[in-house]
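Posted in: Structural Biology > Protein-Ligand Complexes

Title: Requesting predicted complex, S-adenosylmethionine in pocket

I'd be grateful if someone could produce the 3D structure tokens for the following input. Sequence and ligand are given below.
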Amino acid sequence: MRIDIITIFPGMFEPILNESIIKRAQAGNKVKINIYDLREYTSDRHRKVDDRPFGGGSGMVICAQPIFKVVEEIKRKAQKAKGKVKTILLCPQGKTFSQKIAKKLAKEKHLILICGHYEGIDERVRKNLADEEISIGDYVLTGGELPAMVLTDALVRLIPGVLGDKNSLNFESFEGNLLEYPQYTRPADFRGQEVPAVLLSGDHKKIEEWRSSQALKRTRQRRPDLLKSIRNKKGKSKNG
Ligand SMILES: C[S@@+](CC[C@H](N)C(=O)[O-])C[C@H]1O[C@@H](n2cnc3c(N)ncnc32)[C@H](O)[C@@H]1O
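-- Reply #1 --
Done. Output follows.
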């Protein structure tokens, strides 16, 4: 997979790309992540990438010109290599990001992520370049850099072979619309709080049953909406 990120603050990505699992995934050629500094693509001689909004109002808007230039350049090169590219605009007005969307996007070969800043981006970018608009939640951040990092992190760990143990994806929260069961590690007794005896029993069937029931209990307590969507899905498939 290849992820191209377009930003006016390329330095923000360094700590994320050079640590932990994302760093390992790049080193192991599971993903190639490129950061494009938007200022390198502006036709303005002072490297300006933004301007005042037409019609007045506060703040600055990122201009269409440098974004068109960099996206077209990336796509031209990808076309030569016969690659398919999906362009995503990070935007608080977009579809809310979820594990389901992450799984879908993790199957793409090549993504372009466009980070806005200030008051946002010229509407013509949204209309002409964005295949999808994604929000990471109902709140407004100063820029699309953190959302782009959130997407990148969520996608990279889904690429086959990135996480050491392939089972670690199977039982995670949101798999099968359930939250994960409680996890414990050594010591078995910490300040008088003991690990549930079943986890020390060595009986794998019992452990699995306990985990399933805990996952269900947790989901019922914390996210009953997830269970509702399982019931709705079951109802739909029964009714054809
Ligand atoms: C301050 S925001 C612009 C908000 C815009 N004026 C509005 O009201 O919709 C600047 C940039 O941050 C990014 N951004 C902010 N909040 C976001 C969110 N919840 N999800 C994804 N991107 C977000 C977008 O790229 C956006 O263009």
